[in-house]
Design a protein that fits this description.
Radius of gyration: 13 Å
Strand content: over 45%
Helix content: under 10%
Number of strands: 10
Structural class: mainly beta
Number of helices: 1
Low-confidence stretches: none
Strand order of the largest sheet: 2-10-9-4-5-6
Largest sheet: 6 strands, mixed
Length: 117
C-alpha cells in the first residue's frame, strides 16, 4: 500500500516562504513516475482543493489563487514531490496534502501551514 508523508509546514509571516515535501513509499520509482501528482489543501471549514499539479513529464498547472507564488516540482528517483511557497498570504493557511491526480493513493496526515498577518 502506498503511503504519503508530507513535511515542511509551520508558522510563517505573510510575505515569507516555505518549502513542503512529500515522500511516497510502497511504490516503485517507475510506478510513482507515471502518475501526475498534486498538492491539495484544506482550510478550516472548507473543502479540500487542488493547489497545483505536476505531470509525469514535469509540466505544471496551478490554481489561480497561487499562480506566480507557488512552484511544484518532483524527483521521481526519490519518489518525492515539492511545493515551494513564496509570498504567502493568510489565506494560504491550511493543511497541505499531496496525492495522485487520477487514481488516489491513501491520504497522508498532511502538514499544517499557518500564515500570520
Amino acid at each position: 500500500q502506498v503511503q504519503l508523508v508530507e513535511t515542511g509546514g509551520g508558522l510563517v509571516q505573510a510575505g515569507g516562504s516555505l518549502r513542503l515535501s512529500c515522500t511516497a513509499s510502497g511504490v516503485s520509482a517507475i510506478g510513482f513516475s507515471v502518475n501526475a501528482m498534486g498538492w491539495y489543501r484544506q482550510a478550516p471549514g472548507k473543502q479540500r482543493e487542488l493547489v497545483g499539479s505536476v505531470s509525469s513529464s514535469g509540466s505544471t498547472n496551478y490554481a489561480d489563487s497561487v499562480k506566480g507564488r507557488f512552484t511544484i516540482s518532483r524527483n521521481n528517483a526519490k519518489k518525492m514531490v515539492y511545493l515551494q511557497m513564496t509570498n504567502v498570504k493568510p489565506d494560504d493557511t491550511a493543511v497541505y496534502y499531496c496525492n495522485a491526480i487520477s487514481i488516489k493513493y491513501s491520504w497522508g496526515q498532511g502538514t499544517q501551514v499557518t500564515v500570520s498577518s
